[in-house]
Specification:
Layout: H1 2-24, H2 32-41, H3 54-65, H4 70-74, H5 76-96, H6 99-111, H7 113-118, H8 125-144, H9 150-162, H10 171-180, H11 183-186, H12 192-214, H13 218-224, H14 237-251, H15 253-273, H16 276-295, H17 309-321, H18 327-353, H19 355-361, H20 372-377, H21 380-394, E1 401-406, H22 408-417, E2 424-427, E3 450-456, H23 463-467, E4 470-475, E5 479-483, E6 486-499
Parallel strand pairs: 1-2, 1-3
Antiparallel strand pairs: 3-6, 4-6, 5-6
Length: 507
């Protein structure tokens, strides 16, 4: 009866939290990255310049089941995080043998800031986290419960994760180190099922390899070299301090300290006692954290990159809790840590709904202009999209007028917020991120047509380059978006006539 109580409790909690998230994701504007991924879903491919393609496929699926609006674009995030919590429950229950630990670990996934925020946005993190925990679940079944056929499911899950984000590859050294940790586990290296699972993962991932081979390996080069071009061989100890601070921020400080303690103690006990469960969880957490800790000595990793390492750490928390001498004190600290983690998550959810609260505490360099976060929450792209729709209606050849934008962010925003969600084209993208437009847009299909070009700022830095491609260009009055007496954005808009072809634009 007690077991059913925890199962029903988790079911009710998942329904309540997911229901709230389905409402909440419709309250905040679309972000630049989300609009960019939505553009991917309108131009499906085997891979993209920036990332593997899975996020585009899921957005395509949900927007075609529903509509291209905030709810269906973001629907994947709350659903995948709910599924992650469910798999976490099963894994923690199987490892500990206790339903209450399964319930507690699943609840931590729901309330920890980094995972809670990942459940709100149409980014790669939610599906990545799901495939991460699913792969661990099947590996545990294969190794620790002798269900060897689960290696095949683990390979499939790993392959799907590789189609989502390459960070899941960090699971491979984690799993291999775990297998090397005991003579019994090393027997799996002789099993064809382990190696077939890797072949399954590679087969699922093969479309990405095929696409890269056709496109000069640009995706691999970007993700494995160019993305980390700021790294150097010289040590930067301050980056390591920033890394630790970032981890404390995404988890909450006290919970982060307890997790580190649990990982260290769990690893020590696992090696001393040859405890397969503790070793499985230790390597599932420590390997990724160690690799990023080393990386942080040379470059700044994004704080959320190692986040999935804490999934195994959550289970270790409760296993260690039942084994240490100061169990009561640890329990109190864990309750306090969970409370502060939940409180931080609640605050982070409230701020976008009440941005004026945050605005009071931010000292502006220019009292007449708003900070970037407040600007984002004002949803200025929607106002701009409506304005562009009006100007296009005024164009003499409105049905033969296309939209040009400086940069991938503006192009994504305008495509989403123009009245008919029109096709937009990206020019002059000078950062490495956002280059995917190059692989699908065909500007020469619009030769002889007119265009609307825009970029943020009071004047265009690329006007002379643009003039070469049009017979005539006329500037609109500077479009200023304001709210509560503060300037949100200044947009330069140009009417361009008779496009001559992309070869005249030195992009």
């Amino acid at each position: 009866m007690k077991n059913y109580r925890y199962r029903w409790g988790l079911a009710v909690l998942l329904l309540l939290v997911t229901g709230f998230r389905l409402w909440y994701i419709q309250q905040i504007p679309i972000s630049a990255d989300e609009a960019y991924f939505w553009q991917w879903s309108r131009h499906l491919s085997l891979c993209y310049y920036d990332q593997p393609p899975m996020i585009a496929y899921f957005i395509f699926l949900f927007t075609h089941l529903g509509r291209s609006n905030l709810l269906f674009i973001r629907l994947l995030a709350p659903l995948f995080m709910a599924a992650t919590s469910l798999v976490m429950h099963f894994l923690a229950r199987d490892i500990s043998g206790k339903e209450e630990i399964g319930f507690a670990c699943a609840s931590l996934v729901l309330i920890t800031p980094v995972f809670a925020l990942g459940a709100l946005l149409a980014l790669v993190e939610a599906p990545l986290t799901f495939f991460w925990i699913l792969t661990l679940y099947f590996v545990y079944q294969a190794v620790c419960r002798n269900r060897h056929s689960c290696w095949y499911a683990a390979g499939a899950s790993l392959g799907l994760g590789m189609l989502t984000k390459y960070l899941i590859l960090l699971l491979v050294p984690s799993i291999f180190l775990f297998l090397l940790s005991s003579p019994k586990n090393r027997q799996h290296f002789k099993s064809k099922k382990l190696w077939l699972s890797l072949l399954i993962a590679l087969f699922i991932f093969s479309p990405v390899i095929f696409w890269n081979a056709k496109h000069h390996w640009v995706n691999f080069i970007f993700n494995f070299t160019q993305r980390h071009s700021s790294a150097s061989l010289s040590l930067h100890p301050q980056y390591f301090g920033e890394f630790l601070a970032g981890q404390a921020g995404i988890i909450s400080p006290l919970l982060f300290i307890l997790l580190l303690y649990a990982i260290i103690i769990g690893g020590e006990q696992g090696m001393k006692e040859r405890n397969n469960k503790l070793l499985f969880l230790f390597f599932g957490s420590a390997t990724t954290l160690f690799l990023f800790a080393v990386y942080s000595l040379f470059d700044r990793p994004s704080p959320h990159w190692p986040a999935n390492a804490y999934l195994s750490g959550f289970i270790l928390l409760f296993l260690v809790l039942h084994q240490i001498k100061w169990k009561k004190a640890f329990s109190v600290l864990l309750v306090v840590a969970t409370f502060f983690s939940l409180s931080f998550t609640v605050i982070l959810h409230l701020l976008p709904l009440r941005p004026n609260i945050l605005d009071r505490f931010i000292r502006e360099k220019n009292a007449e202009e708003s900070n970037e976060f407040i600007s984002f929450l004002s949803n200025w792209p929607k106002t701009l999209g409506e304005k562009i729709g009006e100007i296009k209606e005024e164009m003499e050849k409105k049905n033969k007028t296309f939209i040009l934008c400086r940069g991938f962010a503006l192009a994504g925003y305008l495509s989403f917020y123009t009245p008919k969600q029109e096709e937009t084209y990206c020019l002059f993208q000078e950062t490495l991120q956002g280059q995917a437009y190059r692989y699908w847009q065909n500007l020469n299909a619009h030769k002889g047509e007119d265009a609307l070009y825009m970029e943020t700022g009071e004047k265009s830095a690329y006007l002379e380059r643009l003039r070469n491609a049009f017979i005539t260009i006329k500037k609109e009055p500077l479009f200023i978006i304001s709210k509560d007496g503060k300037i949100i954005k200044k947009i330069s808009i140009y009417r361009a006539y008779n496009f001559q072809g992309s070869e005249f634009i030195s992009d």
